[in-house]
Amino acid sequence: MADTMQFDLVSPERKLLSAQASEVQIPGADGELTAMPGHTPMITTLRPGLLKVTVNGQVTEFAVTGGFAEISPEGVSVLAERSLPKPEVTQPVLDEWVAEAHKAHKEAHHTVVDDAAQMLADMVAMGTHIGLDPNVPNF
Amino acid sequence: MPNLKDLKNRITSVKNTRKITKAMQMVAAAKLRRAQEAAEAARPYAARMEAVVNGLATSVAGSDSAPRLLAGTGDDKVHLLVVMTGERGLCGGFNSSIARLARTRIRELTAQGKTVKILTVGKKGREQLRRDFSGLMIGHVDLSEVKRIGYGNARSIAQDVLSRFDAGEFDVATIFFSRFQSVMTQIPTAQQVIPAPVGEAADVDTVYDYEPSEEAILADLLPRAVATQIFTALLENNASFNGAQMSAMDNATRNAGEMIEKLTIEYNRSRQAVITNELIEIISGAEAL
Known about the structure:
The structure holds 2 protein chains of 2 kinds.
Chain A: E1 5-10, E2 15-21, E3 23-28, E4 31-35, E5 42-46, E6 49-55, E7 58-64, E8 67-72, E9 75-80, E10 83-85, H1 91-107, H2 113-130
Parallel strand pairs in A: 1-9
Antiparallel strand pairs in A: 1-2, 3-4, 3-6, 5-8, 6-7, 7-10, 8-9
Chain B: H1 4-60, H2 68-71, E1 78-84, H3 94-111, E2 115-121, H4 123-133, E3 137-141, H5 151-166, E4 172-180, E5 186-194, E6 209-211, H6 214-288
Parallel strand pairs in B: 1-2, 1-4, 2-3
Antiparallel strand pairs in B: 4-5
């Protein structure tokens, strides 16, 4: 079995990374999961969180806000709704994301309120994890 | 004989026009490059998205649990046409050709007894279609304030369309835009987005596991796919617009150049004629003495 696999991270606006990775940790909707070469084929949706890619032993982190990942034995493609390398996620960027999630939460219909609340909570958790102040507006 | 002063004024004014069109051409060229890069950058995402949706669609198609975005409402009485054009003119036949394609389609559909609703993106298309179909317009998206088209713009248009679909306002949605082929050629295109057209699946043998579940993923994926298609269309349209504007302005600059040449010749001829006249007068005056 090969020890690396093709990894692609794309957002609608640009391609962020395309490399041979040995390990990818994905913030799946049902929990973190790590894909390694030879993983069983699966498709999962993403929640806001950090994506960790190991290329040549180097770990690179990306913040993603949602989307989905397609995993096959030969590779992983992550189609993120929005994604930035972790160092580029600064306070203003996070503020914007959180504000947007908050707005979606406020405008959400009752059936999807839980989803929106979850999204907001994940977004805030991600910010805290990066070490930024999520600055949640008052509900 | 035209007045010398008048001719001179015309030459100056055409020269000024040429300066403007030349500048617009250069601006369009710069914007075109950026627009092409943006369209290029969006391609991998759109391609993967299409592949995944196609794979999923073929595995779910036919089953009763297929979501309505995929299977349709089982009807095709009400059509929504999303007509995307530019916000500005001075771009040759760009806006008109999209509007013409949409108009032909609307006539066809109405002739078949279908109901047509129109959502316009871009001011120019709305102006053109409003003349004939003002009763059918249900909405307009204004992008004139947008400097750089982002995925967010596409997403809000998609949300608008999807909420109308959920409300049962239409059965089939088609987007109209111009596909960018080269600076000289832009192809007005109609593309059906709802229900999602199911392409020929290449390989159905890969069986995926789904997390959380197939239905949940499709529910998340299909609206995204609609937004992606709209995003691609917006970017293609933007590149086409700048390409069309560039070649239109190139033509205008060339025409102005030709006109200046012609006017200058005329101006010189009349100046010579005036001088000759004056000389004749002086000489005949001298001879008379």
